[in-house]
Amino acid sequence: MKLYELATTPSARRVNLFLAEKGIEIERVPVDVRAGANLTDEFRAMSANGRIPLLALDDGGYLCESVAICRYLDELYPDDLALFGASPLERARVEMWQRIVELDGLLPAFQAFRNLSRIYQDRENCVEAWGHESRARLQAFLPRLEQRLGESPYLAGERYSIADISAYVLMGFLPRLEIEVASMPHIQRWLARVSQRPALGGG
Fold first, then answer.
1. Keywords for this entry (predicted)?
2. Pairing label, strands 54-56, 62-64
3. pTM higher than 0.85 for the full model?
């Protein structure tokens, strides 16, 4: 297998953190998204959404969308981490919080950054007003995350999961939007806890 990626992007970082948690090594192929390498006919023939990360399979097929890639690799390399949950209820809660973080956190963060920075104005219509609205929606979501992490050590419950990986990636993206969470003690405690994981450079 090969993973086509740009390691600094949030979506690729999510897959890389997942791989690090599971100890999986996959050949990386860098894709210069800023230069439009993902817009070529060759890349679009491989990727259903024209984006990275993209996993090239040994049978000649391809998988895109970061969580789909993580789910496939989790099934392919089962372990006791259970990053997608270990029971029917746990799996449902992981899926629930993963979707909440994705739709109410990461998506507006991406929309805010792309529309305000105009980084891809050469290939998409950037709407400054939508960027400001997306940033406001993200800011409105963070207190909900703070509340949840005051109720549970991890987003889906007692166990670290893909939902926490997604939320951690979101936290790392906030400085690009000049948003800080220093005044949110539950998020700070959670960040300190997850930062100790070996996959994140902790002990």
1. Transferase
2. antiparallel
3. yes
Tell me which residue of 86, 48, 87 sits closest to 69, measured CA to CA: 48
**Contacts of 97 by beta carbon, 8 Å cutoff, 6+ apart:** 148, 155, 156, 161, 163
| Alpha-carbon gap, residue 107 to 65, rounded angstroms | 13
SS3 of residue 148 by DSSP: helix
Q: Compute and round to an integer the Cα radius of gyration of the chain.
A: 17
Candidates 3.40.30.10, 1.10.357.10, 3.40.630.30, 3.30.1600.10; CATH matching 2-76: 3.40.30.10
Q: What fold does the segment set 88-200 form as a domain?
A: Glutathione S-transferase Yfyf (Class Pi); Chain A, domain 2 (1.20.1050)
3-state secondary structure of 34: coil
Collapsed DSSP state (helix, strand, coil) of residue 161: coil
Cα–Cα distance measured from residue 113 to residue 2, given in angstroms and rounded to the nearest whole number: 29
Tens-place pLDDT, residues 47-100? 999 999 999 999 999 999 999 999 999 999 999 999 999 999 999 999 999 999
